[in-house]
């Protein structure tokens, strides 16, 4: 309750008393006293309430004052702390700036000192240069005087004397340079040959291979000669049907319990042998049955070719090969070159290439892949006019092989340019596999003819006395006349003979040409 409300109540009460008194003229004195008493009591209560209210308001105002003053003091203290911190930072910056200014002043002093020192040195150098230039002019003048005196004494001009000196020094330099170049070449050859032999020997030692076993005929053994009549058939119709279906020749002669199957294609010979085996076991031999069995055998051989190819690439750890290339790898099993099985040769080359590439720090996987595929041109079912190396390169490109693999296939017989380090490795390993003892088998007549041709080619050169082909034709030793062939000519003769062999002859591997010149001085004491 506020003071205004109390006053209003008092006025209302007094008004009521007044009104009551005016309307009730008959009120008694007791009523007036009672009213006065009540009014006094109300007034007293109003004053007491007003006093309490005043105290409450003063207490509330005091509390608000104290609270505001505390907040003000806290805010003031916080701002004061911020001001102190900012003042400290400002002082620190001033201190750092003062230090930097001091350092800059010291650096400026040092720079000024260095400039003065440099200027002093430049002045000294300039004076020394002037002195040197003056002495040089004096020396040139003295030299010119001496040259004139020497020209008068020697009757030669300076240019003529200089030319004679240059000619003498040039001849001496050419002689020394020739000696140094020859020595460097010999050292390089020795080192290169040693390292190459080391790599090749280590590669060969880590590879095991088979000897040649293939030929151009197959022998089919039979239990009795009575079966020969069934195979020939009435008027030879059965054997004609067999030859027409298989594409090979069946030789039925007096050889006991044997029929010879002859043909240059090993796949056809194998189909013919298996077909004949099935026909003999079944007993029913007639043209219709022959055609049915041959077709079934062809299908089985195709499945076997794919299986052989897959097994080969799995054994060698080669992945991602195109199915057609896998099939060609399988067909290698039925091909041969100089009696050497083509699949075994390719596997051997692949292993040699991987080993040699690893020894040389190259990509062994690509080398192994190229080694396996280097002769795929030999098993292509068509008969193109391209050499097998170029054909194999085209097939590899067709089936998206790596460019280095394609180049290695095409260049292993020098029929295209080599573009990677893998290509010469394939060529070397192919020669190693083909030229090792027991790898290939040639006819005796062609073998002897090749040796005779080698010796005849060497003896056709002037100055050659004798020639011997040794080591199965892999080395040619030539004895020359020492009176007509000097040491330098012997070296050139060896090179010329090797080049002519490369151009005119066909041979596996490589041929070493050794020219021997012997000088004998003979006298008799009598």
From TrEMBL:
<dbReference type="InterPro" id="IPR006674">
    <property type="entry name" value="HD_domain"/>
</dbReference>
<dbReference type="InterPro" id="IPR004087">
    <property type="entry name" value="KH_dom"/>
</dbReference>
<dbReference type="Pfam" id="PF00013">
    <property type="entry name" value="KH_1"/>
</dbReference>
<keyword id="KW-0378">Hydrolase</keyword>
<feature type="domain" description="HD">
    <location>
        <begin position="342"/>
        <end position="435"/>
    </location>
</feature>
<keyword id="KW-0694">RNA-binding</keyword>
<keyword id="KW-0255">Endonuclease</keyword>
<keyword id="KW-0540">Nuclease</keyword>
<protein>
    <recommendedName>
        <fullName>Ribonuclease Y</fullName>
        <ecNumber>3.1.-.-</ecNumber>
    </recommendedName>
</protein>
<comment type="similarity">
    <text>Belongs to the RNase Y family.</text>
</comment>
<dbReference type="InterPro" id="IPR004088">
    <property type="entry name" value="KH_dom_type_1"/>
</dbReference>
<dbReference type="Pfam" id="PF12072">
    <property type="entry name" value="RNase_Y_N"/>
</dbReference>
<keyword id="KW-0472">Membrane</keyword>
<dbReference type="InterPro" id="IPR003607">
    <property type="entry name" value="HD/PDEase_dom"/>
</dbReference>
<dbReference type="InterPro" id="IPR017705">
    <property type="entry name" value="Ribonuclease_Y"/>
</dbReference>
<dbReference type="Pfam" id="PF01966">
    <property type="entry name" value="HD"/>
</dbReference>
<dbReference type="InterPro" id="IPR022711">
    <property type="entry name" value="RNase_Y_N"/>
</dbReference>
<dbReference type="InterPro" id="IPR036612">
    <property type="entry name" value="KH_dom_type_1_sf"/>
</dbReference>
<dbReference type="InterPro" id="IPR006675">
    <property type="entry name" value="HDIG_dom"/>
</dbReference>
<keyword id="KW-1003">Cell membrane</keyword>
<comment type="function">
    <text>Endoribonuclease that initiates mRNA decay.</text>
</comment>
<feature type="coiled-coil region">
    <location>
        <begin position="83"/>
        <end position="156"/>
    </location>
</feature>
<keyword id="KW-0175">Coiled coil</keyword>
